[in-house]
Amino acid sequence: MKGRIALVTGASRGIGRHVAEALKSYGAHVIAPSRAEMDLASPEAVNHYLGAVGRQIDILVNNAGINDLAGVDEITDEIMLRTMRINVLSPLQITQHVAAGMKARRYGRIVNISSVWSFVTKERRLPYSASKSALNGITRTVAVELAPFNVLVNGVAAGYVNTDLTRQNNSPEEINEIAATIPMNRLADPSEIAELVAFMCSEKNSYMTGQVVVIDGGFICK
What per-residue confidence (pLDDT) applies to 185? Predict the structure, then answer.
């Protein structure tokens, strides 16, 4: 992917940061807007940023997302609309912008970061699970439409990942309890997710499209 231009959202930490670093290590020029530069909650802000960037994007990784926990009786329109705006509509908006240039050049790679919670779920995950399930649908449908133009579109459904945020939100004891639910008996390292994404974004991936690949250490197999 040397010389390719990649746009990665949510690259300030966690999976996104490791994805950006991996793409750079393989020779891509990475554009990684901060929230101040491109606020995904605002369609106008997204359009403004994309207008400045132009359409010369070869690789898009839609990584940014939110996970507001809420039980069925706690969910409000505000929670659902915000979750869908950031996790579903903004990736679609960015995809629509970059797709035109990719089609014209007959080359492109798009990866949407989904979640195992689009395949399984648990209490208080309704907004997040619904949004990631919708993102999977976008991934598959856009893949069908763009395949004739050599634009490959895939998703990565990550399980538990050992990020700074995970460690902030869980005690060491809680992380050990989570690990015990995973057949691999540990959380994923962010670099392991990033390497899968990098393959999907590379020219080594010349045929795989429309897939949402689960990488979770066997979690959803149990």
Answer: 98
